[in-house]
């Protein structure tokens, strides 16, 4: 049975490639998804790639992951710094979560340097643009026992 990894993306990530490319890069979310699909296939993983601008939808997907996924790559975007609800959903899903950020929040505004998710995530990858998603998939393959590495 193939492990399924949810790749969940929060608000404004649908604007990648258009919104502040000097911070977030020129890749679109479709480009990130393509990289994830390729990486997942190489690791023997299935991915379910989603994006929403709505906090409640992200919470519902995290709850769904409890039964449908082996692990989660989560870029909660702006909700990282504001959402206790997403934090609680991460805890409730009882799956390994790798928090990913395209930029390095620690080199940005002070309000972006706090995450409600980091301390309940299995790991955090930031500042490596789309490569961070691929590294998160590598980590989850190891955590979920799929990797031969």
Could you give the topology of this structure?
Blueprint: E1 3-9, H1 21-24, H2 29-43, E2 45-51, H3 55-68, E3 71-75, H4 84-93, E4 97-101, E5 123-126, H5 131-143
Parallel strand pairs: 1-2, 1-3, 3-4, 4-5
Helix pairs in contact: 2-5, 3-4
Uncertain stretches of 5 or more adjacent residues: none
Strand content of the residues, in percent? 15-25%
Question: Counting H and I runs of at least 4 residues, what is the number of helices?
Answer: 5
Question: Mind telling me the C-alpha Rg?
Answer: 14 Å
Helical fraction: 25-40%
The count of β-strands is 5
- H and E order: EHHEHEHEEH
Main sheet: strands, sense, barrel: 5 strands, parallel
Q: End-to-end span in angstroms?
A: 19 Å
**Strands in their spatial order, largest beta sheet:** 2-1-3-4-5
Arithmetic mean pLDDT: 92
Structural class: alpha/beta
- Global shape: globular
Question: How would you explain this protein's 3D organization?
Answer:
The protein is α/β, with parallel strands linked by helices. It is 38% helix and 19% strand. The chain has 5 helices and 5 strands. Strands 2-1-3-4-5 form a 5-stranded parallel sheet, with helices on both faces. Helix 2 runs parallel beside helix 5 and helix 3 packs parallel to helix 4. The chain is globular and about 40 Å long. The two termini are 19 Å apart. The mean pLDDT is 92.
């Amino acid at each position: 049975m193939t492990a399924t990894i949810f790749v969940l993306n929060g608000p404004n990530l649908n604007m990648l490639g258009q919104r502040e490319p000097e911070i977030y890069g020129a890749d679109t979310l479709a480009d990130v998804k393509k990289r994830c699909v390729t990486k997942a296939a190489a690791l023997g993983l299935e991915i379910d790639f989603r994006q929403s601008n709505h906090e409640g939808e992200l919470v519902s997907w995290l709850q769904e992951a409890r039964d449908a996924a082996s692990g989660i790559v989560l870029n909660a975007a702006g909700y990282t710094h504001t959402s206790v609800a997403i934090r609680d959903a991460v805890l409730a899903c009882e799956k390994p979560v790798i928090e990913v950020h395209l930029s390095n929040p620690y080199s940005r505004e002070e309000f972006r340097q706090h995450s409600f998710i980091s301390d309940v995530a299995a790991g955090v990858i930031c500042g490596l643009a789309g490569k961070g998603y691929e590294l998160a998939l590598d980590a989850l393959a190891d955590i979920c026992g799929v990797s031969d590495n």
